[in-house]
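My convention is simple: the sequence line spells out the residues, with the fold written below as integer tokens. I include a record here:
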Amino acid sequence: PRVSAALSALVADNPTQLEHVARARRLREGRPLVLLRDDLAQHPDATRPPDELLERSSVTLTAIRRELDAMQASEDELLRARTADLRAAESRLVRTTFWGAVLGLVGGVVCSLAFSRSIGRRIADVGDHADRLTRNEALRPTLPSDDEIGQLDRRLRDVFTQTADRIQALDRARGELDHFFGVTLDLLCIADLNGRFLRLNPAWKTTLGWETADLLSQPYASFIHPDDVDATLKDAARQAAQATVVTTENRYRCKDGTYRWLSWKSVSRPDVGLIFAAARDVTDARRVNAELQARVNELRELNSELEAFSYSVSHDLRAPLRHVTGFNGFIQRSAGARLTDQERRWLTQSIGAAQRMGRLIDDLLSFSRMGRSPLAHDRVRLDAVVRDARQEVATSVDGRRVAWHIEALPEVRGDAAMLRQAFVNLLDNALKYTREQSAAVIEVGTLPPRDGQAVVFVRDNGVGFDMQYAHKLFGVFQRLHAQEDFDGTGIGLANVRRIIIRHGGQAWAEGALGKGATFYVSLPLIHEEVAA
């Protein structure tokens, strides 16, 4: 039974084989062998089994063998069929595998070629973009990609954009430089360290008459005056050795053979082998300066002569005046009783005229000295200057009632002695023209600074003046009032104006008839006070 069950399990998928197993099982169930075994068991002494049982068993075994042989033949046939199918399948598999491999290889080669061509084309595009970048040409459009080549392409495009922006800025700067080169009146140039011009602006032709090609074709030393060549080449050698700024003057030959003086300022760049320079034609300025120097020399000689003349006037005119004053006084004393009233008035007027002439000579000498004396530039306290000036004019008060109002005054830069003389004249002028006032008021104060200068005023409540004649106040011998009303020589305010102008300031006045006058002077403040 176990064998039948095992055979049934083995051929469970084959109905024909199952039928063979079933028939073999039925043959077995006829039990010829079992019967034979049992019979032998009953007759142990028997040496030969019964013939009938043997024959039946032989028949049964033969039938079972036939079933098994049929099963074996069927299995062999199935095996052959399956082997043939397997070989056919194997052949098909081999062919399929072979052609699949061939197709895969061909496809791989095709894909590889296509990929290589795509990569190569993109790499070629990147190379072309790099070449275009070096030529500053616009890049061609390409398909975007996120791989390394795409990133490189985007980087090249970014570099191109940045480069294009910088080139545009550089072009603008170059255009501005070219425009500046073209319109400036100065002579601009770029030269190398070997003594040759590399670039020149049009001002060279305007100034010297040479074409640019003429100046570029030769060393620049060939256009310099022979007396100036050595100094110029020494400056160039010094600049070639180190970056330094050089200021010098030399003469350049014009196309017509004349020479023009050029004032140079140049700086070198030894690291790039260039010198940048600008020159200005100073020929006319040097000629004017030479003429001015000649005039200065003439004026110096004239001043020396004037100074000698002043001393001569001081000596030669004072002696006759002293004689006139002395003899008139002698006549008044010796013949006073015999003189008529008219003769005494004549003598008095003569003495007064001589005295005024003496004061006029003194004032003229003082005015002359103020123009020639050297000017100091010291720190001057105007408070002290005005206080000393007030003490000096105090003798002119003659018992009058005078109210002085003097504010705190700043420190200025100037000559203390000259400024003292200026304020003496201003305060004396205020006392003189307030003589008719029962109570004179004289103020000294300041206004807000302007243009870095202190503005000081002297104001009085005197007779004043008509503003239409204000321009005459500071002129020599100019008077706005009659001599018999107010004495004076007409030089005091002229002296004030000269002193103030020499200090770099100004003097002016405001007034009205019967309402007093105000005189203003401006003087340079101390710099640190201006900054404060």
Notes: The CA atoms of residues 393 and 428 lie 6 Å apart. The first strand starts at residue 187 and ends at 192. The chain has 14 helices and twelve strands.
